Amino acid sequence: MVTVDGDGTPTAGRAAYLSCAPTPPVVDLTPALTDGAVYDLVASALDPTEDIHASGEYRRHLAATLTVRAVDRALDRARAGSGATERPSEVPA
Q1: Most-buried pick from 36, 37, 54, 67 (CB within 10 A)?
Q2: Which of 3-7, 12-16, 44-48, 89-93 is least confident?
Q3: What is the pTM of this model?
Q4: Does residue 54 form part of some domain?
Q5: How many domains, the chain?
């Protein structure tokens, strides 16, 4: 979930993650929404378990990558009326 002000500036954000821990962790994305560090924040906040389906490292990368995409899409939709198009974060190569 991402909240923006009237100018389209992000003011708050949170995300919950399934299949990363016995209890789904919730990460506060707010500090990373304006400085472009969403991937790094999520990757450092999660310590996913591994099983026969995926390693913990793969789950961490996938969660961070999908969060960046979701945040970008949410902000694009919220800013649709303002004409702003810049992305707050990038997924590292």
Answers
A1: 67
A2: 89-93
A3: 0.80
A4: yes
A5: 1
